[in-house]
Design a protein that fits this description.
- By secondary structure, the protein is mostly helical.
- It is built from 12 helices and 5 strands.
- Strands 4-3-5 form a 3-stranded antiparallel β-sheet, with no helix packed on it. A two-stranded antiparallel ribbon has the order 1-2.
- It is globular.
Length: 284
Amino acid sequence: MLASGLRDTPTTTLLLLALPTTSLLTTLLSLKPYLPISLHPHLHPSLQLSRLFTHQLAHTSSSTLLFTCVLLYQLRVLERLYGSRRYASLLLATAPITALTTVFTAIVLKLLSAGRYNYVPAGCTAEVFVLLAMWAESVPGKWVVNVRLDDNGHQGEGMRNGTKPEERDGQGAALRLSDKWTTYLLAGQLAFAHLPYSLLPAGVGWVVGKAYRREVLPSGVTRWRIPGKIWSFIGGEGGDARQREMVDGLRRRLREEGTRASSGQTSGIDAGDAGEGSSSGRRR
C-alpha cells in the first residue's frame, strides 16, 4: 500500500484514462446536453431512462473532472488494500444503486419543493463519495494536529498520534486536523461544485459507501465479485497475482525475522546459562 504512483492499481489507472476521454468526446461530439437529467421533461413525459446510467459516464465541467481525477488518484490506496478485483466489483455493484437512489431522491425533492428541484448533474460524483466513505473508515491517518482556540483568542497547536486533545479546565474549543484534510477539502470542492444539485449525489454516495462498508446492504451486493473467468479474460489476474506475490513475500519475510528473533533469544538464554554454570564452578 505504500507504493508510489499507480503501481498495482489497474482499475484506478483505467478510470483516470476513461473519464477524461469520455468527457472530451462528449465535448467534441456535442453530447453534453444528453448527459445530465432534468426530471421534467427527460424522465416525464419523455421517458429517457437511459440517462439514469449514462449520466455517470462523463463530466460536463472541467473543474469537476479535475477534482474527480485527483480524488481517484488519492483514493487508489483502497485498490491496494482490497485488491483490484474487489475494488472493481465494488464500483460495478454500487453504480446502479447510487444512480437509482439519486434519481429517486431527486423526485422526492421535486415533489417537496413544488417542482423547483428538477436537475441531476452529470458525473460520477456519487461513486467517488462511495470510495471516500470507505477510505475514511478503512485507512487510518498518520498524524493529527490539534489547534486549540482559548477564550482569550490565543491559538495553540499540538501534535498527537491519534489521541484526543486534553481539556484545559473545560474551557476553549479545539479544532482537530489530520493528514486527510486535503482529501476532504477536494471532496468538499466537488460536492459544492454545482449547488444545490451536486450535494445530492455526494450525500447519496457517502451513505451508500458507509452502508457497503458496514454490510448494511444486502449480502448479494457486498459479497458479489466479478466472475473469475471474466476477470482473467480482461487481464485482471496479472495484477492480482503480483499483489499475492507481494503479500506472500511479506509473510515469508516476517516469518524469517520471527525465526531469527526467536533463535537469537534462545542462543542468548543458552549463553547466559553457560555463564552462570562456569561462574558457579569457579566459586566451588
